[in-house]
Design a protein that fits this description.
single chain, OB fold (Dihydrolipoamide Acetyltransferase, E2P), five-stranded mixed barrel, 7 strands, globular
């Protein structure tokens, strides 16, 4: 009987560990042919929009709902990843994890109001938010699907 209980426990732990290794959000995607996030700006070149599948490390996540995440690029830069039609969110505790996401990369000017809103979502202080007074050109991404590894 003890052996049977032990076997059941080992099988349960094995399935639990496997189920938690990868989480999908939004459209079901895979990680095949994903480019590194740091390579995306060069790959886009002068384009303002481009379909892509990207892999990178999460730098931060919206702490209100998980409605956006920032992924590390190169030289301390980040790219904000938002989710198509506000149709899904990611967990708020995935900072430092590797993600793969697919959708549309966009270069655009982000208005002050949006930058301040993002700062508030990230938990910045009122003083830090008030220092945001100019729009900023950013590389952003609208993801159809996300894998958290």
């Amino acid at each position: 009987m003890k052996k049977l209980i032990l076997l059941f426990f080992v099988i349960t732990v094995a399935f639990s560990a496997n189920a938690q290794s990868t989480d999908h959000f939004g459209k079901e995607i895979n990680d095949k042919k994903a480019i590194e996030a740091k390579a995306l700006p060069a790959k886009m070149g002068d384009k303002t929009e481009m379909q892509a599948k990207v892999s990178g490390t999460v730098e931060s996540v919206c702490q209100v709902k998980g409605c956006w995440m920032k992924v590390n690029l190169d030289n301390g830069e980040t790219m904000r990843v938002m989710f198509k039609d506000y149709g899904f969110f990611v967990p708020k505790d995935i900072t430092g994890k590797t993600v793969v996401f697919e959708g549309e990369a966009q270069k655009k000017m982000v208005p002050v109001e949006h930058l301040q809103h993002y700062a508030k979502d990230a938990g910045q202080t009122k003083e830090e938010i008030e220092k945001i007074t100019k729009p900023k050109e950013e590389l952003t991404f609208i993801a159809d699907g996300v894998i958290v590894k």
